[in-house]
Design goal:
3-stranded mixed sheet; 3 helices; alpha/beta; single chain; 4-stranded mixed sheet; about 25% strand
């Protein structure tokens, strides 16, 4: 025998109560004056609290925590970020600090994070020297991209290959 499948039943959904003709009764779906007032007061309180935290010393930077950098690179990072001490963590532009740190010849990359309540955390990826560039009585550590990291005493860093430049090269 052949089995018959039952047919799906039809369901009628009534139109929502409060409808007047083809229009919804908007008084039923709009918030009351009291709830609107409460919402605006709460929003103003939050904005005022944010402004207060941003413009006062409640979250002022007291300490810069530099991670992942050798001491020479850490000194460069601290020098570049010393103006942030005393400013609010909320007012610190992390992207601008990261860009400024990446512009340092000793820094390959950096990320800045806020360590509330008073710490600016900076994670640094230092540039790795691969050679010593020499010109006359001057010597610099250089990256693989040809970026000069810093000047070094002549005769130091003996483990790196030497690249000699003519005296005329700037």
């Amino acid at each position: 025998g052949s089995r018959r499948r039952p047919r799906a039943a039809s369901v009628v959904v009534p139109f929502p109560q409060g409808a007047v003709g083809d229009r919804l009764n908007l008084a039923r779906v709009t918030p009351s004056g009291r709830s609107l007032l409460l919402g605006f007061v709460l929003m103003a309180a939050v904005l005022l609290a944010y402004w207060g935290a941003r413009s006062t010393s409640v979250f002022a930077v007291e300490r810069v925590d530099v991670q992942g950098a050798p001491s020479a690179v850490e000194r460069d990072v601290r020098k570049a970020t010393r103006e942030t001490v005393g400013r609010s963590l909320l007012a610190v532009d992390a992207r601008a600090i990261e860009d400024a740190l990446r512009a340092l010849p000793s820094v390959a990359g950096a990320s800045v994070d806020r360590g509330f309540p008073h710490t600016l955390v900076i994670k640094v990826a230092p540039e790795r020297p691969v050679a010593v560039v020499r010109r006359g009585h001057e010597a610099w550590l250089s990256t693989g991209m040809g970026r000069l990291i810093r000047e070094i005493p002549v005769g130091s860093s003996r483990g790196f290959p030497r690249l000699w430049l003519k005296r005329e090269v700037a």
